[in-house]
Design goal:
By secondary structure, the protein is α/β, with parallel strands linked by helices. It has 7 helices and 7 strands. The strands form 2 sheets. A 4-stranded mixed β-sheet has the order 1-2-3-4. It has a 3-stranded mixed β-sheet with strand order 5-6-7. It starts with a helix and ends with a helix.
């Protein structure tokens, strides 16, 4: 909303008024609610799962591995103190030296998508890349969660069946 509109709302007694300067595309990319004709188009944000296991650069692999396995997962997403995605630890790296720092065993810079990415495009890209999941982040690179191909396909089927 414009600064003028925000000022007017304040004069009407609204106390929590914000001038959101980044715009509509940033709002949608963060996975926030929307209205209008495109609001019904399924996006990555509609099928993303939370609950990802996160670890940090200075964590020990052994400590992280305990959390990963106890959650029934096979990877962790490496984030910084602001929750910005830095990497992933999975596969053979999980069987490495338990005393190793996460920073030394992670795969840096994993691919991510934004929450406003159309779900049909995500499904196509995952299938074409023979991938089972992708990370979803907000415009600042902070982790929202993982999007699994099976969840995306199910969500699209629900929309097509409506």
């Amino acid at each position: 909303m414009s600064p003028r509109a925000a000022a007017r709302l304040e004069t009407l007694g609204f106390t929590k008024v914000y001038d959101y300067v980044n715009g509509k595309s940033d709002w949608l990319a963060a996975g926030l609610l929307s209205e209008g004709p495109s609001a019904g188009v399924p996006t990555a944000g509609d099928a993303v799962r939370g609950g990802d296991i996160v670890c940090h650069l200075g964590d020990r692999l052994g400590d992280s591995l305990e959390r990963i396995r106890s959650a029934g997962k096979n990877l962790c997403t490496v984030v910084d103190d602001r929750h910005v995605v830095l990497g992933r630890v999975r596969g053979r790296a999980l069987s490495g030296d338990p005393n190793a720092a996460i920073e030394d065993v992670m795969q840096s810079g994993p691919s991510t998508i934004r929450a406003d990415t159309p779900l049909d495009a995500v499904v196509k890209n995952l299938r074409d890349g023979n991938l089972s999941s992708t990370l979803v982040t907000d415009p600042e690179g902070r982790l929202i969660g993982s999007l699994y191909l099976t969840d995306a396909e199910r969500r699209l089927a629900e929309v097509d069946g409506s």
